[in-house]
TrEMBL record:
Record organism: Gossypium harknessii
Annotated DUF7745 domain residues: 33-184
Taxonomic classification: Eukaryota, Viridiplantae, Streptophyta, Embryophyta, Tracheophyta
Record-linked InterPro entries: DUF7745
Name of protein: DUF7745 domain-containing protein
C-alpha cells in the first residue's frame, strides 16, 4: 500500500485485515490530513479517502489497499472508469449470486453511467474540448425520477436491446485505460 509521503513503517503499523482485503482505517487518514504540512499531499490523502469511502467502499470506515493502488495510477493519467465499472459489476454480481446482500459501490456513479450508456445521448464531440463543459454537471441538471419502483427498473433492464445501449460514452476521450485494480483484472 502506498499513501502519499508516508513511510512503509507508518502504513504497516496501521493496516488492518478486513474480510479478504487489507485496509487502513479512515480515522488514521483523517488524523494525517489534519496535521500534514504539505497542502498538496494533504489534498491527495483527502481525495484517496473519498475514493476509498465513497467510490469503492469495502468495509465501513476503512480504505482498501486496492484503492491506494488505483489512486497511484491516476497520477499517470490513467482513466479510473473501467476499474469503477468492474468493481460496480463485481458487487452487483455478488449480490445477485447470493440472492441478497448490500451493494458495495457508489450508487450515484452507477446512475450516471446508466444515463450515459442505456439511453442514447446527444453526440456532440466538440463539447469535450471546451474548458467549461462538464458531462457530470449536465447530468446533474437533468431532472431525475426517483419514484421508479424496483419492478419498473427490472422491466427496463430486462427489455434493453442492443440499439438502446451506448457501449462507449460519446463524451469520453480515448486515453490509456486502466485494466487492473488491485487483484482484479
Amino acid at each position: 500500500m502506498n499513501i502519499t509521503g508516508m513511510s512503509e513503517q507508518w502504513i504497516t503499523a496501521r493496516i488492518k485485515q478486513k474480510g479478504d482485503c487489507k485496509c487502513i482505517p479512515w480515522r488514521n487518514l483523517r488524523d494525517l490530513i489534519l496535521v500534514h504540512p504539505d497542502m498538496k499531499k494533504m489534498a491527495d490523502i483527502f481525495t484517496l479517502s473519498i475514493y476509498g469511502l465513497v467510490v469503492f467502499p469495502k468495509a465501513l470506515g476503512y480504505v482498501d489497499e486496492a484503492v491506494s493502488d488505483l489512486f497511484d495510477r491516476l497520477d499517470k493519467r490513467v482513466t479510473p472508469v473501467p476499474a469503477i465499472l468492474a468493481e460496480t459489476f463485481r458487487s452487483l454480481n455478488a449480490c445477485r449470486r447470493a440472492g441478497e446482500g448490500r451493494f458495495i459501490g457508489c450508487m450515484q456513479l452507477l446512475l450516471a453511467w446508466f444515463h450515459s450508456h442505456f439511453w442514447k445521448v446527444e453526440k456532440v464531440f466538440y463539447r469535450v474540448f471546451s474548458e467549461d463543459y462538464s458531462h457530470l454537471k449536465k447530468l446533474v441538471a437533468i431532472p431525475m425520477q426517483d419514484d421508479i419502483s424496483e419492478e419498473k427498473w427490472l422491466a427496463i433492464l430486462q427489455n434493453l436491446q442492443d440499439k438502446d445501449v451506448e457501449w462507449r460514452a460519446p463524451w469520453m476521450l480515448p486515453n490509456e485505460i486502466l485494466y487492473r485494480c488491485g487483484n482484479f483484472d
